[in-house]
Amino acid sequence: MDKALFIREDVAAALQEGRPVVALESTLIVHGLPRPQNLETARAMEAAVCEAGALPATIAIIEGRLVVGLSSEQLTAFAATDAIVKVSRADLAAVMAAHQTGATTVAATMLIAARAGIRTFATGGIGGVHRGAELTFDISADLPEIARTPVAIVCAGAKAILDLPRTLEILETLGVPVVGYGTNYFPAFYVEDSGLPLQSRVDAPADAARLMQTHWEMGFTSGIVFCNPPPSGSGLRKQEVDAWIAHALQAATAAGIRGKSVTPYLLDYLAKASGGQTLETNVALLVNNARVAAQIAKAYSAIVTE
Ligand code: PSU
Ligand code: MN
Known about the structure:
The protein is of the alpha/beta class. It is built from 13 helices and 11 strands.
């Protein structure tokens, strides 16, 4: 057993027996959603995973320990704690060595999940290339992590605040399969479709599982991105979202927001500017992605244990 990991007992048993487990991240609980929706959503995602027949493992760093599967008490305390640091690959060792508590991004969550043997992960939207990255060089560490870590991520594409065409280009350069789940287009997080076509598509959990098995049997070490649009009825109108994003980006520049704070600032701005509409969609797509990830994990565990 990996000494850096603290795997919840039921999660460890499920992994040992090849039963389906879905990793969930913790940055969105602390830096992606306001209270009290953050805890409500974290719990709703866990419940959706359970209902679909898999075991949820919310990943975070608690007092320097890499915890795979927060207990209910840990999750409640975590969601209520102020000033928890956002941890990506580059921050991991420092936070562990200082025995700090940290919220794991997509990058950090997937690398911890992979070490624990979890192959399926649900989030809202991956990080990507920020608009204006040709000047700021702000490209999320999520992208290179997906290129090196063998975990399938179920998401609604990349966050709409990003430069989506360039995000897709980098994923292609890195050799990461970006697969539509019931869609031919890259979703735009709050919006069902960005108009950017994808090269491949699956329509059922078993097809997603077969793609995962084939990819990793080839010896590829990268992850896979399954793009699941926001559930029908919860998607927002592109024009409206674009206008809110333009204001949010202006406000971020004016306020001198940089680095790790950019994404949390923009998400918060959008939730306020839209009168809560982006928040509502964000929550709906998170829970929906958790459900689909559980269905895929179940199908994958069925084919690899047969
Ligand atoms: N999905 C959401 N809300 C979020 C995130 C994803 O619905 O807040 C988080 C993820 O943890 C992702 C991070 O890794 O945003 C990206 O941050 P950055 O752009 O700083 O890399
Ligand atoms: Mn960044």
